[in-house]
Amino acid sequence: MPRIVNxxxxxxxxxxxxxxxxxxxxxxxxxxxxxxxLDGGEVxxxxxxxxxxxxxxxxxxxxxxxHRKDKKTKAANGNDSVAQVLAQLAKLDEIAKxxxxxxxxxxxxxxxxxxxxxAIGGGGDx
Length: 126
Ligand SMILES: [Zn+2]
What we know:
Elements: E1 4-5, E2 8-21, E3 27-38, E4 43-47, E5 53-54, H1 57-77, H2 79-119
Antiparallel strand pairs: 1-2, 2-3, 3-4, 4-5
The structure holds zinc ion.
């Protein structure tokens, strides 16, 4: 299905050559800013993530920030797993409380045992 921009068919969709070159002199291409050559020879610049286009590539750059926010939103959805971890931690906390209760019972049992030994004249813990 041909892509239509400004009512014209997109002939080529290529990464945009940046006005700056890499330190080693090799050209730099903006992969997220697409150079769109339209049917009829008109050139415009498009976003790699959506249908946004602008005749000025410098205007596409700030637009790309929107998609960065999208990624943050995705990360927020990823918080589902964080919630799961928190739920597990809460469960661990319950287990820890449970363990503490058992520890208290065990310590009480030890004290009771010592008291019984003393009562029957066992002579201390030996
Ligand atoms: Zn976009």
